[in-house]
TrEMBL record, chain B:
Swiss-Prot/TrEMBL keywords: Signal, Transport
Name recorded for this polypeptide: Extracellular solute-binding protein
GO cellular component: ATP-binding cassette (ABC) transporter complex, substrate-binding subunit-containing
PANTHER family, A to Z: MALTOSE-BINDING PERIPLASMIC PROTEIN, MALTOSE_MALTODEXTRIN-BINDING PERIPLASMIC PROTEIN
GO MF, any single term: maltose binding
Entries under InterPro entries matching the protein: SBP
Family: Belongs to the bacterial solute-binding protein 1 family.
Signal peptide residues on this chain, from the entry's feature table: 1-27
Domain of life, per lineage: Bacteria
Length: 301, 420
């Protein structure tokens, strides 16, 4: 009496629905399995093998990971990668918020100014990297050094220095991503109900208190999003570094080399595919851990 | 797939022109072979011309050329050959040969017509690196070597002659270096940069000219951590200390030379084409400077052609005939004219006309005393020398200490490659 009558095929309506759902889901599932999960799994298997692209794959056990642990270049690269993250994320976050907060209050030519900030994000990273590379050159061609020389200040080694090179490469990378973060922050700011601000105004609260007590707490989901996304971006930095140091990739003396560039070189210059896969697995684990920590620290309580 | 279809459609040739030197059989099947190389416009143009000539002489053989961007070239060959879909004749960088032999991707050339005696007698000596166990696996059409480019206008302005020794080079470079009021170099006498061709110059030229031998045991042992190596390094670092060069000047050595802001520049014969198109640049080229005892050395590299393991039966025969043509004197002349790369046969290169050519001559004469480094991993081995110089220049490390570190690092790469 209570059970619905079975349909023609002997299935209940719920079962049919489930079947349809799975039917539609099977396409993206298949896509993800073939395009994402299979190569990922394959890379993990490869990290325990030796392969130079040409011959057979041979098992190497934990050899690739053992070599990685004792490779001084890897630890240098590891430090560099975290330098990009630890400098890049907070600086870009503060800058983006600063610009977005004030842009939000600007009425005059608001759209134009916003577009101007967004333009670098749309520009090709390769073109941008080459232009900045030219900015950083020594006299007689570099823009910055020519300017310094013309006012009698000694030139600065930007890219050809073990201490200045990493920040010099990071600067355009931050600048390039700023436009996107500003847009996200502005959307977050607009989503805060105006009534909160009006109430604060009536109570006569200071601007700083409004910022700390209303704006930032309510912006939390936006901040989480921007932090996670920009962290992943800085951990995966590649095109800026590769193009700004293409004659000596990741140089000088590996001081600008990020993990992705090391993986690229191991795989496609040295054809050491197994070792490259081991590095990739490490990068995957780092990205996973960093993202999980951030989500946990910044989640809504 | 196309090739297979065509093969199954093989027809009996009826034309009398089908009588070729190689075959001689009365009725010949139509065979299609595939040739692969990486994309570089002049090389593709030259090969198209060679294929046309070859097909005219061998009407029963059809050659199809496929080219890929340099960046995926090696990956594509590695994947295609084992699956049987790849080329019959393939172009490889000489440094890759061992890997390809070990992986069974290429097969030895038949000793008739490619006998080791013939190759050793007729080709420039560095080609001998292509031999293994008494058989040649690959042969080049053309080779490359280094020479010293100079800017004629800057030399005239400074009133200096074209240098023939290292000391003369340093003096001439000093006379042509210019600085602004603050002491910044605005024009270098000599371009430098281990990231460009200098690592070859250091290994195969300077180390030898200072009395050493960069490697021993068939390039398995690094041998420049010696007094000669130290002297070569001191000379190289001295160029910057004496202010006649600045590594990284205008980003790339060849860019500085092309824009007319460098008097001297060491580069390969492949740079000729780019410089010829440069408006307003009057340049000449001369052999690499000798040391003070008159001893010269040079570095040579090349791309080779090899028959892959997927060529069998009639395709193998056709591939051998094609290899014979593209390593023939005629093909080398065409290659020289079209690409600007030097003939691999000494008899072709060393003709009166070629050896005295104002542009090709210095490179061709350099081939006679050139050495070819057998690399395990060229970019990693280059990096070792880049780092060696940077440790001294950026971190003030003692040159001797840096040299020792470089030799150890490179030895580790070689040991790893040779499985020791």
């Amino acid at each position: 009496m209570s059970t619905p009558a079975p349909a023609a095929g002997g299935l209940t309506i719920m079962q049919k629905r489930t079947l349809w759902a799975w039917g539609f889901l099977s396409v993206p599932i298949l896509f993800y399995v073939v395009i994402r999960f299979y190569p990922t799994g394959n890379a993990m298997v490869l990290s325990f093998q030796e392969w130079n692209l040409l011959g057979e794959r041979t098992w190497a056990g934990l050899e690739n990971y053992r070599v990685l642990l004792w490779d001084p270049v890897f630890w240098q690269v590891f430090r560099n990668t975290f330098m990009y993250l630890l400098l890049g994320t907070p600086i870009s976050l503060v800058l983006a918020f600063f610009v977005a907060y004030h842009l939000d209050q600007v009425r005059f030519m608001h759209g134009t100014i916003r577009a101007l900030y967004f333009v670098p994000f749309m520009t090709s990273a390769v073109a941008m990297a080459w232009v900045w590379r030219w900015f950083y050159q020594d006299v007689p061609i570099g823009l910055f050094n020519n300017a310094l020389a013309s006012i009698g200040i000694p030139q600065i080694d930007f890219l050809d220095s073990t201490t200045n090179a990493l920040p010099s490469i990071l600067a355009p990378a931050i600048w390039a991503g700023l436009g996107f973060q500003i847009i996200i922050f502005m959307a977050g700011l607009r989503a805060i109900p105006r009534s909160f601000y009006e109430a604060a105004k009536i109570d006569g609260v200071s601007t700083w208190t409004v910022l700390w007590e209303i704006t930032l707490p309510l912006l939390r989901p936006t901040i989480v999003f921007v932090v996670v996304l920009s962290s992943i971006g800085f951990l995966r930095i590649f095109d800026h570094v590769f193009n700004m140091t293409s004659a000596n990739p990741g140089g000088p003396l590996n001081t600008t080399k990020p993990l992705v560039l090391m993986i690229y070189q191991t795989a496609f210059d040295s054809y050491d595919m197994g070792y490259a896969a081991a590095q990739t697995v490490i990068l995957f684990l780092i990205l996973l851990v960093v993202s999980l920590i951030q989500l946990r620290l910044l989640r809504d309580r | 797939m196309l090739r297979r279809t065509r093969n199954t459609l093989a027809v009996l040739a009826t034309s009398a022109a089908a009588l070729t030197a190689a075959g001689g059989a009365s009725a010949q099947e139509q065979v299609t072979i595939e040739y692969w190389q990486y994309f570089f416009e002049a090389r593709v143009d030259a090969m198209e011309q060679l294929i046309e000539n070859f097909e005219a002489a061998n009407p029963n053989i059809n050659v199809e050329m496929t080219h890929f961007p340099y960046a995926d070239y090696r990956t594509r060959t590695a994947v295609a050959v084992p699956s049987g879909e790849g080329p019959d004749v393939v172009q490889l960088f000489y440094g890759w040969l061992n890997d390809y032999i070990d992986a069974g991707l290429i097969q030895p050339l038949p000793t008739d017509p490619f006998s080791p005696e013939m190759v050793e007698a007729e080709f420039f000596p560095m080609v001998q690196a292509m031999e293994r166990d008494g058989q040649y696996y690959a042969l080049p059409t053309a080779v490359r070597s280094l020479a010293l480019f100079y800017n004629e206008r800057l030399l005239e302005e400074a009133g200096v002659e074209v240098p023939t020794t290292l000391d003369e080079l340093v003096a001439a470079a000093e006379a042509t270096t210019e600085r602004d009021g603050a002491g910044n170099i605005t024009q270098v006498g000599f371009t430098s940069g281990m990231t460009a061709q200098d690592h070859h110059w250091f290994r195969e030229v300077l180390v030898r000219q200072f009395g050493g031998e960069p490697y021993t045991d068939g390039y398995r042992n690094v041998n420049y951590d010696t007094e000669a190596g130290r002297a070569a390094l001191d000379f190289y670092l001295g160029l910057e200390e004496q202010g006649v060069t600045q590594s990284g000047f205008m980003d790339e050595p060849q860019a500085a030379f092309r824009s007319g802001r460098a008097a001297f520049h060491i580069d390969g014969s492949f740079r000729i084409g780019a410089l010829e198109g440069e408006r307003g640049l009057r340049w000449g080229v001369t052999e690499l400077p000798a040391n003070n005892d008159g001893e010269r050395s040079n570095y040579s590299s090349y791309w080779v052609n090899a028959i892959t393991s997927s060529a069998e039966g009639p395709e193998y025969e056709a591939s051998v005939a094609f290899m014979e043509y593209i390593t023939s004197p005629e093909a080398m002349e065409i290659w020289l004219e079209t690409v600007g790369e030097l003939p691999a046969r000494s008899a072709v290169g060393m003709t009166e006309e070629n050896a005295n050519d104002p542009v090709f001559g210095p490179f061709i004469r350099g081939l006679e005393y050139a050495h070819t480094t057998i690399f395990a991993d060229e970019s990693a081995q280059r990096q070792v020398l880049v780092d060696m110089v940077e440790r001294v220049q950026l971190q003030d490390m003692d040159p001797g200490e840096s040299l020792t570190m470089a030799a150890e690092a490179e030895q580790a790469l070689l040991d790893d490659f040779h499985g020791e």
